[in-house]
Amino acid sequence: MKKIDVGKKILIENEKYAFENILFLTGRKKLCLNMISSPGSGKTTILVRTISDLKGKIKVGVIEGDIQTDIDAERIRATEAPAIQINTEGACHLSALQISKALKQLPVEDLDLILIENVGNLVCPSAFELGEAGKIVVLSVAEGDDKPVKYPAIFAKSKALLINKIDLMAGGHVDFNIEKVKVDARKLNKDIEIFPISAKTGEGMDHWYEWLQKSIETNSMSQ
Amino acid sequence: MHEMSVAESLLTIISDEAAKHNARPVGARISCGTLNPINDEVLCFAFDAITKGTSCEGVKLQVEHKPIQARCRNCNEKFNIEFSSPECPKCAGEDFVLMADAPLIIEEIELQTD
Question: Most A CBs within 10 Å: which of B8, B11, B14, B35, as the mutation test of the A interface?
């Protein structure tokens, strides 16, 4: 028997493509964010509303990840924003190679912001770097306020947390303690920006838009 | 089920290394951090399934889970953080900085040399 030291990152192939994507995006000074959440938290609705409300101010391109169908890309295209649909055909997360191919299909030069909507899953996508500048985690109030404690990785790694569907809290339809979520998320990640929003009614969206615009400005001035 | 992607990458790395040494692989030791955890049982099941009929068939995987450390901003204590009760063991402070998490690494491969 002989033991050999390897010391190699297992997901090195993915990381190579992620690094290429970083070079591609930073070379063009384009901000790219990776949205991660459970299925049904409202990622696509947030994207559609964001694109529509910021029309004329920022140009957004979207990369949509789903197991199957191009329903989400069609919803984005209805806003006239360019959208590339990736079907993972069973895979639980998007990979950097898929993003690399999608970036080449988007009119990146004309865009201010590229948003990736990852496959609905609060676990696996957090382990695969895509070359994004930051992750955005979305949690809807119907999912419960225990998620930062149960799924710490994604909250520890994200730049911002969108707490969506806050309109459901009026009338007591769901028991969800926003303060608890803020405290638990900030224990894992002191610097996380937290925006309680309703993509349906528009409540709280202004703060998210301000943060997005500020992030685009900071990104274009860096490097 | 990202363990399947990890299993596929392991198959590539282990068979390449074994071919370089012209030997049959029998075991591999991998390590992972706390924010990119691996479920050992799921990984081994996936790995056994995809290595049937390959040079990696029968390779035993051993997974080491490394804790993640935090530094307390109040008393500067460095400690292994438990996400179920994230607080400083020394001063019970809840204001801390997470240190870098251990990456997912293949540390060592065991080869049969006879």
Answer: B35
Interface size between A and B, measured as CB pairs under 8 A = 88
Domain spanning A12-221, CATH architecture: 3-Layer(aba) Sandwich (3.40)
Tell me the per-residue pLDDT of A96-126, one tens digit each, with 9 for 90 and over. 999 999 999 999 999 999 999 999 999 889 9
Give Cβ neighbours of residue B3 (< 8 Å, ≥ 6 apart). B38, B39, B42, B43, B46
Predicted confidence at residue B113, as pLDDT, reads: 80
DSSP secondary structure letters along A135-200: EEEEEEGGG-TTHHHHSHHHHHH-SEEEEE-GGGGTTTSS---HHHHHHHHHHH-TT-EEEE--TT
As for how many domains chain B has, the answer is: 1
Greatest mean pLDDT range, A2-16, A51-65, B34-48: A51-65
Instruction: With CB atoms and an 8 Å threshold, state whether A10 touches B10.
Output: yes
Taking CB atoms and an 8 Å cutoff, what residues of chain B touch A2? 21, 23, 110-111, 113
pLDDT of residue B84: 78
**Domain range for B13:** 3-112
Per-residue pLDDT of A33-43, as tens digits, reads 999 999 999 99
Strand partners, A8: B106
* pLDDT for the residue B1: 62
Question: Does residue A9 belong to the interface with chain B, where contact is any CB pair within 8 Å?
Answer: yes
